């Protein structure tokens, strides 16, 4: 495999060292923001007693934190490469000591990390120059080595989620433009699957027992599914929804996601393991989008996401296990594009992106309860 340089910055944003990481790689379709504004890193206290760390990858035009485990944060940052405004998108890991390490699969021009497990293995998508729209999948090991994720006969590959044991799920596109699901074992072997009768199947999340959540299409409609560890399927829709889009499944089998109502307004939902569906609406917003959930020791789940107000300003929310919803915004984002939570760990630390009053690019944040 080829080697690609990776730069590590210290907590002041100064280049600290250059390391080499083995690469090979691709881009994707996640819930990337990278378009909502450059702030210095710092701590902020909100009225709800939460604290915020805000940061940017040095030299970037936009930074977005997409993933968090118990120790590290991962995400993307963009760079404008020339006078014509060409933009490249790169990956980064922000370690618990505040240092930032950038990484890219070899020849990547745009990439998107989609998931990270507790061991620090990151999966995602990237594109290279002159690849005719084809998307590649990658897996980055904690030692920095990067390898492709491949599915036979696939035109494009979209890894979506990885669990604690290293099982990866995602979907892939064939040359007839149809989409199908895959499950990659830790040894690299691939199993493909499809919801029975579906036109396409798109997994989005896998939990530690191997249960998979995602959506599938029939005609012009999208529906939710859970694939049990034994390979059986449970299909579901939010009542009165015209489209249902799961986003994540926790280790207790609860699924969180979003749906469109008959007016094509987005709402959020939490599906309990027994099939009960709870609708979620962020106060003071006109649409609600769920981003992630976290199982708690008391048997409940915490949900995060964001809402859009009448001015399309993004307002973050967190719903506790008792159903109480608290909205929040990163300080400085109130008069900008707002706050977009993307991922949450078991300690209810939330990461995402926000834009300030200049609204020209995004910055990353970590919210600590």
Structure report:
The chain has about 375 residues and is mostly beta strands. It has a single domain, classed as TolB, C-terminal domain (Neuraminidase), CATH 2.120.10.30. About 0% of the residues lie in helices and about 55% in strands. It contains no helices and 31 strands. It has strands spanning about 1-10, 15-25, 40-45, 50-55, 60-70, 75-80, 85-95, 100-105, 110-115, 120-130, 135-140, 145-150, 155-160, 170-175, 180-185, 190-195, 200-205, 210-220, 220-225, 235, 245-250, 255-260, 265-270, 275-280, 285-295, 300-310, 315-320, 325-330, 340-345, 350-355, 365-369. The chain has a six-stranded antiparallel sheet, with no helix packed on it. A hairpin with a 5-residue loop joins strand 11 (about 135-140) and strand 12 (about 145-150). It is globular, with a radius of gyration of 19 Å. The N and C termini lie far apart (about 40 Å).
């Amino acid at each position: 495999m080829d080697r690609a340089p990776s730069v590590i910055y210290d907590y002041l944003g100064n280049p600290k060292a250059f390391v080499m990481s083995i690469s090979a790689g691709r881009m994707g379709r996640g819930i990337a923001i990278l378009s909502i504004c450059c702030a210095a890193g710092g701590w902020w206290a909100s009225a709800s007693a939460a604290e915020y760390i805000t940061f940017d990858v040095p030299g970037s035009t936009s930074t977005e934190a997409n993933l968090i485990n118990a120790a590290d944060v991962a995400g993307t940052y963009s760079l404008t490469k020339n006078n014509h405004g060409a933009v490249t998108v790169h990956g980064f890991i922000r370690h618990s000591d505040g240092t930032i390490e950038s990484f890219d699969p070899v020849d990547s021009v745009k990439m998107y990390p989609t998931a990270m497990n507790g061991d620090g293995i990151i999966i995602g998508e990237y594109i290279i120059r002159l690849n005719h729209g084809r998307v590649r999948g990658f897996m980055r090991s904690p030692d920095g080595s990067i390898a492709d994720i491949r599915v036979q006969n696939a035109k494009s590959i979209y890894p979506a989620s990885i669990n604690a044991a290293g099982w990866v799920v995602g979907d892939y596109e064939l040359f007839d433009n149809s989409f199908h699901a895959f499950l990659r074992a830790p040894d690299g072997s691939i199993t493909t699957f499809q919801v029975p009768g579906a036109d396409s199947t798109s997994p989005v999340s896998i939990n530690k027992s191997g249960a998979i959540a995602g959506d599938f299409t029939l005609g012009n409609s999208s529906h939710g599914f859970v694939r049990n560890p034994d390979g059986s399927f449970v299909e579901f829709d939010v009542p009165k929804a015209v489209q249902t889009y799961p986003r994540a499944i926790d280790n207790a089998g609860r699924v969180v996601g979003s749906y469109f109502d008959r007016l094509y307004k987005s709402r959020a939902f939490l599906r309990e393991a027994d099939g009960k569906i709870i609708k979620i609406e962020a106060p003071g917003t006109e649409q609600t989008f769920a981003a992630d959930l976290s199982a708690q020791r008391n048997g409940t789940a915490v949900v995060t996401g964001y809402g859009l107000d009448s001015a399309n300003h993004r307002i973050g929310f967190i719903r506790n296990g008792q159903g109480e919803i608290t909205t929040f915004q990163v300080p400085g984002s109130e008069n900008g594009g707002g706050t977009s939570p993307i991922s949450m760990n078991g300690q209810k630390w939330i990461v995402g992106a926000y834009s300030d009053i200049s609204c020209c690019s995004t910055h990353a944040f970590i919210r600590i309860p």
